[in-house]
């Protein structure tokens, strides 16, 4: 699947800055992932050139087209929602910024795959399905926050582009599952998962909040939900003015630095910034996301106040700016390196092996689009 999903970051960066380099990077990522996404033609033949087994062409009467493989090895049959969901999100973002029908068709196909094979009757999303003919369409019994959150984010963009009635209804259904589910949040409404996956839920609802600018019960509910997570992060996941955040957000605070915990906390803090002094339009909305979501049993803490903005900015922007500068610098260096024809650009070349906070991400080859497919054939680090 997308390793660190730089295709997503590049697509979002292009939408904001209109820099062609970001669009090029997003397209490269999408093209790499497309190789490991089942097409209608491959389903018709029952084979795909990236796998060494016969495919299950349909499961429960629905085509397997649109599923993306989690691992690129030729014998691994797992099609996961993490891989398919990220491909859905990037396809939808590219469709939005380019108006290219190819990306829109890919997004629709991915969404249909998840709905047909991984979505549960309650609206949660299973982790994977096995695609080989011998596995008889076996699916994972487990649902989790990352799988559901990524799917919701993809649906948000897809519904915004197409205004398709069926997609809008599916989006409302999955949002209800997110808002009322107890698998990753307690009765107080705080995301309590310990697998650092709760931020996918926050990202998804933030994407919906950003796109639906008109007043609605649903938008107000999402505002409250994001506010609850923000307050949990600053009140329970850290203490004493420390910039070290723990997981889960229900506490207790951590005194040990964890790059994963920091990244997850930043997601919540950044999502809350836009809530401050946000004035929703009083007009009724024709947006599909304006329908009300039934209230969950979760309580809602006070939303961030104006003074909270300083806390968020002070604790996040400095560190985030460093990370962004490093990432953008590496992206541009890698692009320049390839243009010069100097061979593969390896992430670990930039950092010594004893680098502390960033090296863990870079050394795993941040730029690999899909696990096991970081380089062109024949290239090695």
From TrEMBL:
Residues 280-305 are annotated as: Disordered. Residues 284-305 have a biased composition (Low complexity). The chain crosses the membrane at residues 311-333. GO terms for biological process: carbohydrate metabolic process. Keywords: Membrane, Transmembrane, Transmembrane helix. This is Glycoside hydrolase family 76 protein. It comes from Armillaria tabescens (Ringless honey mushroom).
